[in-house]
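Two proteins follow. First one:
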Amino acid sequence: MPRIRTRLAVLMLVALASALLVAACGGDDDDNGGSTGGSSGSEPQPGSLADLCPKDRLDLVKSGQLTVGTDKPAFPPYFEDDDPTNGKGFESAVAYAVAQKLGFSKDEVKWTVVPFNSSYAPGPKNFDFDINQISITPARQKAVDFSDPYFTAPQAVVLAKGSDVKIGSLSDLKDAQIGVQIGTTSLDAVKNFIMPSKDPKVFNDSNDVVTALKQNQVDAVVTDLPTAFYITAAQVPGSKIAGQFDTGEGDNWGLLLAKDSKVTPCVDKVIGDLTESGELKKLEKKWMGAAAGAPELKF
């Protein structure tokens, strides 16, 4: 993405300038055991994360410690046992993967409680980044920084209590009566990917969708996966997620940082590396997939 390339280009120029300055000064770090000789195989390569974002030079809330924010209570499947520190749950696992890439051990990561609505409010922050299912929006970007997305919400199918619809693939929904909210990517997904034989029942807001599911006015509803988790866990007892499917559209979640944070380009680099290596997708499948009750539906 252009934004990543611009930030990394600036960081690379800064790293190069710093290296030239150290060389010109004769290496002031000799008393710390550093070598002023030529590069070796164990040294970070130019342009690497360790080279561009050395741990000891990160502009952190507290030196030597990565402070991560999230709300409380912290719910599954994003966190398990209301304990972000255990590394279990999708967002806990992502936070520790980012920390590891930045050079922090697990005991160097400290969590702090940050209410959802205050996380993106203007002003100073008591965390280095916040991870809490926060969608990236232009309005929020005026007050805070976001990393590049670590998650894009897929669509999900939620079945009403007692529904006799059997779903192994999206084609099994052809004859189902589907409920969906107007003006959403979910409505587009129903029209373009499921293409049911019956016109879907389209509702004005999410409350109406939930009511329709409770009252068995529909066989199933289509919504984004995070909302599906919430519906089945808290809103409609007995409902269940039949599965999820990716349409290439959906809300993007990003790590939230203070506006113009110097750590933002470093976190962007980490997210890029985790995406390219496939590690983010593995964490998503582990914590947000079949094990969490949301298997992938075939087209």
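Second one, unrelated to the first:
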Amino acid sequence: MTQTWDPRQYQQHGAFVHGLAGGVLEWLEPAAGERILDLGCGDGQLTKRIRDAGANVVGLDSSPQMVAAARALGLDVTVGDAVAIPFEARSFDAVFSNAVLHWVRDHNAMLGSVKRVLKPGGRFVGEFGGHGNIAAIRVAMRCALERCGFEAGRDDVNYYPTPQTYARRLEGCGFTVERIVLIPRPTPLHEGGMSGWIKTFRRGVLESLPEGARDAVAEEATSLLAPVLQDEEGNWTADYVRLRIIARA
């Protein structure tokens, strides 16, 4: 199944994603005059921050709706696939990606595509879901799907590797790993809480179900998660774990 995105829904329930990206942007250290690709740029919030640092930034995203939102900010953004980046070889000083790579199915193809467009010695800087990311949410979704009569495997839509596994993958694709770390990041959810998160970040899973079952699955998963991810005052926290990398082509 394919994950789909609604820019307004994402801004409402997923704005924390770019709000928590300061650390990986520090690793990128965009410099004036550099040409940088923002891979999976979404609605362009981080692309704009890279541009404002003086870099010549280009965005790429597979969602036409998100690309339209990014273009509305005056950004140079193209619709395209991470596994077949539609730019010339050796044309970027850096490739940057935040909260995207866990959606990519063929990482070897994606890494080969990234390496192709980087200049020799160019850097690949990214952050995405790592081993243990949203573990409780994943278990609850699988259980909710089964209780509602569907295969639990419908929720197997992401890739969350360990640092060791991903370092070997990077090296196997010709990169030199400079740093790779796993970062636990419990993340408060505000408007919409867990229900809003599920309807945004599991939208593709829900859309694969009959329309009448979608709310039932989301509500069942939310109910299962309440004892472990909701506090006494009703506030929700998602059990995020991020993998942050910097590697050289």
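SUMMARY FIELD: The chain is about 40% helix and 25% strand. Residues 7-134+158-188+240-248 form a domain with the Rossmann fold fold (CATH 3.40.50.150).
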